[in-house]
Every structure is written in C-alpha cells, then in structure tokens.
Amino acid sequence: MSRSDQPKGLTALDRPNSYIGQSVPRPNLDRLLQGRGQYVSDLVLPRMVHVAFVRSPHAHARISAINTEAAKAMPGVVAVVTGRELAGVVTPWVGVLSHLKGLKSAPQHAMAIDRVCWQGEAVVAVLASSRALAEDAAEAVEISYEELPAVTDMRSALDPATPVIHPDLGDNLAFERNHDAGAVDAAFAEADEVVEAEFVFGRHTGVTLEPRAVVADWNVGEGRLTIYQGTQAPHMVQNIAAKHLGLAEQQVRVVCKDVGGSFGIKVHIYADEMAAYGLAKLFRRPVKFVADRVESFNTDIHARDHICKGRIAVNRNGLIKAFEIDDLTGIGPYSMYPRTSAVEANQVVNLVGGQYTTPNYRARARVVFQNKNVTCQYRAVGHPIACSVTEGLVDLAARRIGMDPVQIRRLNLIGDDAYPCASPTGLRFEALSHHASLQKLLQMMDYDVLRAEQARLRREGIHRGIGLASFIEVTNPGAAFYGVGGARISSQDGVTVRLDAAGSVTCYTSITEQGQGSEAITAQIVATGLGVSIDRVRVVLGDTDATPYGGGTWASRAAGIGGEAALQSAKALRGNILQVAAAILQARPADLDISDNAVVDPSSGERKIELSELARIVFFRPDTLPPGLQPEMVATRHFVPREYGFAFTNGIQASRLEVDTTTGFIRLLDHWVVEDCGTVINPQLVDEQIRGGVVQGLGAALFEHCIYDERGQLTNANMADYLVPMAAEMSDIAVGHVVTPTKESELGAKGAGEAGTAGAAAAVANAVNDALSPFGVTIAEIPLTPRVILSALGRA
Amino acid sequence: MTATRIALMVNGESISADVPARLNLADFVRDQLGLTGTHVGCEHGVCGACTMRVDGEIVRSCLTLAVQADGCAVETIEGLSDSGEIADLQAAFRERNALQCGYCTPGMLFTAQDLLLKCANPERTEIREHLSGNYCRCTGYHAIVDAVERTAKARQRRP
Amino acid sequence: MKAPAFSYVRAESIEHALELLSRHGSAAKILSGGQSLLPALNLRLAVPAILIDIGRLDELRGIKLRDDIVAIGALTRHADLLTSEDISASLPLLRQAAAHVAHPAIRNRGTIGGNLAHADPASEFPACMLALEARMVIRSEGGERRVNARDFFRGIYETALEPHELLTAIEVPRPQPGSRTYFHEFVRRSGDYAMTGLAALAHVDGAQLGDLRLSYFAIGDRPHLARATAYLVGVDITAERIAEAQASLDAELDPPDDQQASAAMRRHFARLLLSRCVADVLERPELAMEVVR
Ligand SMILES: Cc1cc2nc3c(=O)[nH]c(=O)nc-3n(C[C@H](O)[C@H](O)[C@H](O)COP(=O)(O)OP(=O)(O)OC[C@H]3O[C@@H](n4cnc5c(N)ncnc54)[C@H](O)[C@@H]3O)c2cc1C
Ligand code: FES
Ligand code: FES
C-alpha cells in the first residue's frame, strides 16, 4: 500500500509519539563508548589457533617448490598447510554473473596452488597458538618461485603483445559493455561545441579501522561450522561457505556482532577467509584470522582504477545534446566472488548523464585483468566515477560557452515534474528533485556572495574555487543487482517482532549493523509501528540462527528495505495484539490502538490496558481468555521493492576550496550536500552517513592512492604511506534535505549511505578547476595531489 | 627470550604478569587481561586506535612494550569509563552520534580528554589538530569535533 | 604484524647500558621512546637479538641551561621540548619544530636522542640541530666524544654512532641575542613527515643579514645546510639577490624523487622556503611575493 492511499493521520509517519523523523540516539552507543563492544578481533574461543598466511612477494609467478618442514618444527605450530592440501576441503569458485553478458573469470582457490597472480595472494597457511608464533613460523616456510611477466598497465592489457594472465580465457578482457541510445553521432555533428577530456581515477581502498576478521569454529560433534565474522551479509556467507565446504546450509551458522567499519569491504568472499573456514574444518578447532594492516592493503578489495574518456556536445544556449564515454578499468587477476568485479564499470555506463535530459548517450566499458590485487564494490560503486565524468564534462562545457555552472545545470537537469521517466540506459526514475535540491544548495551556501568573494580575492592573487556536483544514486536494489545473475544473495529482508511477557519487545532483523544505525532505525520504526516506547525495544541482528533470512546491509538498502519489513512486522503484531485486547476488553479491534505502551481508545486517548498486563494474561493466564483464542505475539514480515529495480535518490554537493598555486596545496574551506533520500527516519543518522561518505570521497579526491610499480608491487601498503583523510585537513560539512518519499513502501525511505561518497570528489575536482580557470588548465585526475596541481601549472 | 615478570597498576588494580619481551601493551591488555576496549588498527603507530594512558599521559600502546610499562599506572577505556572521568564527553559523543562503528572511539576519547585537560576552551581548528593522529573512517570527524567542543563549553560553565 | 622475538634488558645506569652495548654490539638496539623502533619491529624490518631499554635513566633526561649552551638530555621527549619554557626562551626553533613532529601521543614518548639517532632524512630535529650548530655528546665504554651535527648525520638512517655507542645529550650553543628563527615544512597532513622543510637561524644586522643558516630536510639523504646563503649575507637584499641565491641553491641540491614529492617539486619548495624565510626574518613580505611571479 502506498502512502497516498491512506487516510491522513494513520501512516506510520504520523502516528502519535512517532519516532520517525527524530534524532534518537543509537541504543548500542553506550557499549561502544565504554570499550564494551564485541568485535570479532576481540573473540577468544577454547582451543583456538591463529593463522598467519605466507603471501606471494611476486605479482605473477609459478610456484616451483614449497618446503614446510622447518616451519612445522617451530614452537607453537599446530599445522602448516599448502593450497593443494586445502583444495581438498574448499572447492574453487568463479566470480561471474549471468546477466553481465560475456563476463568471464578463472577458477580461484582459497590459496594459490601452482601459480600466484598478485602480490599478497596467500600461498601457505601456518596455524599456531598465537599470531606471533604463526608469523615466526611463516618466515621459516621456504617457497621457490619462477617469476612470470606481470600485466600491470591496464592501457596495454589488451595488446596482442601482452601476456594473457589466464590462457584458458583467451585474452585479458573480463567484460565489455556497449550502449548506444538516441542519435549520438548526429548530436555531436550538429552541436555548437564539443568538449572532451580523459578522466583518471586512482586505485584506492576501504581502510576499515578494524581489519577483516574471522573466527571459524567447526564443531565435529554437531557437524556445524560457526563463522564469527565482521560481514555485511551473513546469509550470503552462510550460503557460500556451505557450498564450497560441501555442507548443507543449516550446517553453517554466521554470527556477526560489532564490526569496525565495512563500506563494502566486508561484503565479499575473500579467499583467505574461505581458507580460514576450511582450516577450521580440517583441524576441528576454532581458527582465528585477523588481517594485519599490511595484509589489508594487499588483499582487501581495491576500487576505482578507471581511465574514462568522455565527450559532451553542447549548444551555445547551454543545452546539452549528448554524452559519450569510453571507460577502461583494471580489476586484478580474478573477478571477485560472488558479486563480481564488473559491476563498477557497469554502473558507470548506467549512470553517466543520468541526471540530465539529453537522450543521446553512447558508452563503452571494458574491464581487464591485471596482476594486482582484485577490485570490487566499495562504497558508492561506480558513482564517483560517473559523477566526476558527467559533472566534469558539464563544467567544461559551461566554461567553453561562458555560462555559469549553476545555469547550465538549471537548463539541463531533469525537471522535478517530469517523473516518472527513464534514463538513456533504461533506468527508471520514480521521482527525483534535482531542481529543488539545487535551489536549496544555493541558499545554504549563499552562492552569489561566494562568487563575488571569489572574484575579489582572485584580483589579490588568491585562488578560490567553487565546484558543484549533482548526482543520482542507486539505492534499495531488488533482485536486479545480483539475483537475476544467479548469485544467491537475498534481495528480501525480514523482521520478526515479538511481544514478551513483561511487555517489552524483541525484534530480529536480517539487516546488519556496522555503525550506520541499523539497530537504531529498526527500534525507531518498530516502536512507532507498534506504539511502544523505544526503550522497550531490543533489536537482535547478525546471527543466521536467529534472524529472518535476508540480504544484510549494503548498497544503501538497509533502511529502505529492512526498515519497511520492520514497519510491516510491527503493524502485523499490533494487529495481533489488538485482537487479543479486543477479546479482553470486549471491544472491536478497529476501535482500539496502541500508544505509549498501552492499548488505548484512539479517540479519547484513554488507556484501556497496559501492554505488560496484556502480555501477562497471554503468557501466564491464557485460561482467563475467551475460549478458542490462541494469541499470536510474534509477527514476521519480509519486504522487497517490486515495482522499481532500484529506488533512485538524488542530490547535489558543493565544495569551496583554495588552491595555493605556488605550492600546489589545496585547502578545503566548506562542503555542502543536499540530498533526497525520501523519508528521513533519523535525521542525525542520515546526516552522519552523508558526512562520513563525503570524507571518504574527499580522501579519494585528495589523498588516497594504492601505488603499484611496473612490476606489480604495491609500494605504499602501510598507513604511513597510504594517506587517509585525517581531522586536521577536513572541513565541516553542511547537510540539507529535500524529501521525496518512494511510493514503493509505506515508509517511503530510500538509501543514504553512499550519496556522500558519490559526489564529493567531483565537487572538489570542479572546484579546483574553477580555482585554476585563470591559468587555462584543466585537471581530470584524482587524487589531486600537490604534484598533480603543480605539474598542471607547469611548476614542477 | 624468556618471559619477564612485570608488576603494574591497570585501571587501579595491581597486576603482575609474565610477558614475553616482544609483547606490546595493546596486545597485553587485550589478550592477557581481556581488556578488549583497546583497539588495534595498524600496529605501526599511525591510526591512534590503541591510544591509552600510561602514568597519566596518552601513548600509542602498539608502540609501547608491556615490559616498558612495568611499575606504571595504565588506564584503558574500561577504567576511564568506570571512573566517571569522561562521562560528560561520552554523553556528548552519544548525543552527537560522534561514533559509527566505534572502533576509533576509545582512542578518540583518550585524545580528546587529553586536549580538554590541557586547554579549557579549544577552537575547532585546535580540536582538529589535536585529534589529527586519530583516524576515523566512519564519521568524517565533524561530529567528533562538535562533541568535543560541546564538552569543553559545558565544562567551562561548570562551577 | 607482530614483532620478532628478542631479549630485553632494562639498563640500570649509563655504565650498565654501555657495558651491554659493548657486549652485544650490533646485535643490540637501544630502546628510548620506541616510536621509530617499535614500528620497525612490528613490521619485522628490524630484527635485533636484544633491546637495551634506557628509558628509565633519569640522568639522560632534562634540559640544562649553561652560560653559552643548552644541554638537552637524550631522553628529553618531544612533548618536553614543546612545553619547556627554557626551550621557548632560548631555542624557539626546537619548540617550533616539535609542534610539527607526529601527534600528541607519539610526542609523549618519542625522545630527541632517539629521533637524532634514527636520523630520518625527513625529520625536523636533525635539520634544527644542523641550523643550531649543535654537538652530539656520545659515550661508550671507552669514553666520551663530541660530534658536530654537520658530521653526525651520514645518510638515510645513518649517523656517526658506532654500534657500541650511546648518544647521551645534545649541546646546543645559545644563539646570539636578537637572532631570528624560521621554520616551515610542506606536509600533506598535519604531523606527517615533511615533503620538504626548512629550519633556519638568522642574525639580522640592521637591514642586512649578519648570518643565515638555512637547514633543509627531506631534500636529500641527510639534512642540508645551504651554501647559497653566501649570496645573502652582508648585502642589501633585493629580489635579484634572492634569485641568485635560489639559483645557487638549485645547483647545490640533488633531491630524491619519491612518492611524497618529485625532485622538481622539492627544488621548487626549497627555493620558495628560501625567499619566504628571508622575507620573514627581515620582515619584508614583498620579498616573498616578488619571487612567486
Ligand atoms: C605515526 C608517527 C609519525 C611520526 N612523525 C614524525 C615526524 O613528523 N617527524 C619526526 O621527526 N619523527 C616522527 N616520528 C618519529 C618520532 O619522532 C620518533 O619518536 C623518533 O624518531 C625516535 O625517537 P624514540 O625515542 O622513539 O626512539 P626509538 O624508537 O626508541 O629509537 C630509534 C632508533 O634510535 C636508536 N636510539 C635511540 N636512542 C638512542 C641513543 N640515546 N643512542 C643511540 N641510539 C639510540 C634506537 O636503537 C633506534 O634504532 C613519527 C612516529 C610515528 C609513529
Ligand atoms: S594500532 Fe596503535 S596506532 Fe594504530
Ligand atoms: S567510528 Fe568507525 S572508525 Fe571512527
């Protein structure tokens, strides 16, 4: 049922004492503030052993011999296991999806068997009584390698002269997609101006503060494997672990308590984690694997690494006539499992130009293999690239025709009254608010005043820039992302709500928490939907034995999908409770409601029976209820959006910064975001998701870069050399909202987790180019380091 | 390479333990004392997650050996919380949602309290500077700066 | 990422430390604040058999003012340099520099002796010591010797210290009254090691520079004292003088090209720092502006 069908005053959002739309503090914070969290890295089990992996020092090499004898004799060592030995327990996989036509990859094992394909690939596992002893013994493992030529430059990966990493695949092309919509050639031929640029996006990675961590416990007596893991998708891990260890799904339980950050890093199946599961099974005892920081840099998925050529056709009156892109990305030696490494490029094709009206769009994306660490989906998958290319081109076009960046956007952004409509790639937009968002942004930032200031300072030799970046964001995905391609990743999420004997409520949800506030918004929605105070609601998540089956938290889906399931289950339980209340009170359920922990008369507000009293009767004195009544104090509901494949959101960001043209340093002054994620369940949580996301985007824009040398060695795999954004260099971030609820759900919420990251780098790049416009240079490369700036200015 | 006996105060409790020389203070309190509120994010001194107090001063516990803490007074987030010393700062973090995953939080709290003890009324830029060695991937820092600033202001109003 | 196994001895006295050093030689490593040694151990980049912890030797700690020198004990921490009033008053350059070294928790343990012995070419303090013409006080069982900063730093992580020697103190001549200091570094993020930096000491004589010591860091394998100052001392400073000095500086530098900065950038930064420093100590901002053109 959509919102508009409901009589006013009865929606979830308008219920008395609604928590929706309120900044309720998260219930789990006190625990974390006192150091009482339960992260997997903290976990200790009886008989637990630690694993350290011996990892390949080469980007590409044949393993000619492995000698583990010396290592086995080291103190504390329980076992030393090679890839070949482990292959008896864990079967290999291939990371492809059938809807990404032509996507190919090679079988990947939990540990390398006779060949290593990137520096950091695990070759031998050492199990010992402590991590330190395991590392000692790992140093004693002798491995001889025969180095093979490494494919490192994506530009030449497809050249006939370049070796093919997986000869069975025929070439290094993992995936190619071409799209042609409208009349692109004619548009370019007829346009007044054509502007083009080549955009370069460095590789970066997630750098979750808690590294990836697993404790796998095979209980041979029960025949069950319990996996404690910091993961975003417990049911996916359960399914895949079972499949590749030869177990039935119910033989695997995945438990996920506190997680020290995820951002897409912890939603994949990593070979070394599969190895840990396999080792637990092999040695019949708990095995703990916590990646150290160097391992994280070498093996956590990387992201981006795109070179994207873009062209825009524009008329002198400001009308954009066409976009064309040619994107190339290097993904490492394998397509990641099970989500694949072709999704980012596919998203780039989907999203470029998507906020604008022009129907003319041509795109090619090619995804190539390399001997570097794998890349895969990291926060805002593809969006920062699509946004930077689109918005970079729009700014270039504006500059060419001498138009203000705001004006060209006003002329070309899809009208707020044009919905529903579709993009040139067939994406369907239910309702977006580009113009309202732009208007709000301009007000928040006082655009005209800033432009005047910029002009004045420029005369004094101070170069400030203002950059805008409007964006669309894919949220609330249904099956279209993975399910249709054959991946066993749930699109549905489920919530069970239970009234307990003392009148409190326990709620089990299949979405997970890594700090976004899943627990808080679930409690808010359930409390509101049921009519209880929030302190009565306890939320349980992250346990495949306990929660309903579902997808988890990724792709900005938890609030929109899991939140709706929470609302519907709470409403269902309310219905059940009112039935019992009606029987007790000899009234009609329709004449009763629940508010503030009691069954009330909705018209007078009179408290008829406390929920605690009702629960007491139900559980302890059912004999006093009317004959035949079987109260049902539990309700479960699932939800998946059915009408739209995705709920698109939109927004716009602006950055204001100063470029020191003498030193190449950039100082961030302000950052603004206006975002439309539909119903805002908890404004504070949304704002903080945005801010955190923006800073990840700023990291990519200014600092973060996985720097490989030509031999495929990652040269800055530590936190001193890989620069993450820190407090001193970041600015405050202002966040505003426009609210266009989705009608696909009663709640109306869309996702907000990735919007910040989607547009931040584009806004910064546009601001830098705006600042540098008097110098006649354009930079289309991130990270925008002082070196990049100075060399563009011809100063170093 | 045998273990060395150390005696120290941890959160006001006297502890003696045999530790290998190579064991750092972070691993010691986590693995031997079960004080897992001290987090380890990099083990090479850059991220600040392992920040705790030794003899009243903040240190990186991944860059301090347990044997070096012999005879010292060590405070971890568990002790700092139980003592009530930073209850107001913790409340401000909660109100402002100045933590998401919470992994950086114990180290942030120690570093923020260090600043507040030294400087009663810090500017936002001073807060950012003092926290500049503590990495947070989740929040983008703005909320943390707000929470520290609010705590400073509230403490100033206190008689 | 766990340190390899090693033995550990806590030195009871300087003599004890020296005796241990002479017994174990290069198999031993001195442990001061541990802020450079422990990262290296955790990353298994260093594999000493034994650590000699001098951290409790109070006689190595503290700042002593004598008539013409300031003696700084090797165990004096970065945090002490930042807060000591004696340092602020007599060696402000060190206080200025200390604010740029790492972050509060690291400054609470890192020591000046450890920092200088570590001799990171991107570190601030070695350059300061070179600018200030400091002498390193070095002891071994054989006795005590003093080495000028200029001779102490020998290369990347290399100093004049022999494996059996201990750096016990740094003696810094007090700059003449009226001296000016200048400190600036280019860093990507607060507290990082510099891409290029300058620690300078100047004596201003009317409108001229009576003396000028420009000590660059992160510009080569050790701190570098610019010879180009010859163009600036005892002359009327004009944009042309500065340009000459910059050209000469450029000729004497051979900066590395690495992830932090290209050689060309380092040259550019070094030139900029020269003009900014001169403009600052002479209080003639226009001198910095002119060369930007
Ligand atoms: C995240 C981070 C950022 C940093 N940023 C900076 C920075 O910006 N600038 C900077 O300069 N430094 C920086 N440092 C390093 C810091 O300044 C160290 O404290 C310093 O370099 C070493 O001092 P220490 O007392 O900790 O020495 P230790 O780590 O104990 O020792 C360092 C080396 O010197 C030897 N040694 C120590 N003392 C003596 C002695 N008395 N005689 C002979 N040999 C001795 C040791 O054997 C060892 O080889 C940073 C460190 C970290 C972790
Ligand atoms: S774990 Fe100690 S600073 Fe990162
Ligand atoms: S809250 Fe997750 S790292 Fe700070």
Question: What does the secondary structure layout of this molecule look like, with pairings?
Answer:
The complex is a heterotrimer of chains A (796), B (159) and C (293).
Chain A: H1 29-33, E1 49-55, E2 61-67, H2 69-72, E3 77-82, H3 83-86, E4 115-116, E5 122-128, H4 131-140, E6 142-147, E7 173-181, H5 184-190, E8 193-205, E9 213-219, E10 224-229, H6 234-245, E11 252-255, H7 271-283, E12 287-290, H8 293-299, E13 302-314, E14 320-330, H9 343-351, E15 361-368, H10 383-401, H11 405-412, E16 421-422, E17 428-429, H12 434-445, H13 447-459, E18 463-475, E19 493-499, E20 505-509, H14 518-530, E21 537-541, H15 558-585, E22 593-595, E23 598-600, E24 607-610, H16 611-620, E25 634-639, E26 647-659, E27 666-676, H17 683-702, E28 733-737, H18 755-771, E29 781-782, H19 786-792
Helix pairs in contact in A: 9-10, 10-18, 14-15, 17-18
Chain B: E1 4-10, E2 13-19, H1 25-32, E3 51-54, E4 57-60, E5 73-75, H2 77-82, H3 87-96, H4 105-118, H5 124-130, H6 142-157
Parallel strand pairs in B: 1-5
Antiparallel strand pairs in B: 1-2, 3-4, 3-5
Helix pairs in contact in B: 3-6, 4-6
Chain C: E1 7-10, H1 14-24, E2 28-31, H2 37-42, E3 50-53, E4 63-65, E5 69-73, H3 78-83, H4 85-90, H5 92-98, H6 104-107, H7 112-118, H8 124-131, E6 135-140, E7 143-148, H9 149-152, E8 153-155, E9 158-159, E10 166-173, E11 179-186, E12 196-205, E13 208-217, E14 224-225, H10 239-252, H11 263-281, H12 285-292
Parallel strand pairs in C: 1-3, 2-3
Antiparallel strand pairs in C: 4-5, 5-10, 6-7, 6-10, 8-9, 11-12, 12-13, 13-14
Helix pairs in contact in C: 10-11, 11-12
The complex binds flavin-adenine dinucleotide and FE2/S2 (inorganic) cluster (2 copies).
Which short descriptors sum up this protein?
A: 796 residues; Aldehyde Oxidoreductase, domain 4; Aldehyde Oxidoreductase, domain 3; 27% helix; 24% strand; B: 159 residues; alpha+beta; Ubiquitin-like (UB roll); DNA polymerase, domain 1; 5-stranded mixed β-sheet; 6 helices; 38% helix; globular; binds flavin-adenine dinucleotide; binds FE2/S2 (inorganic) cluster
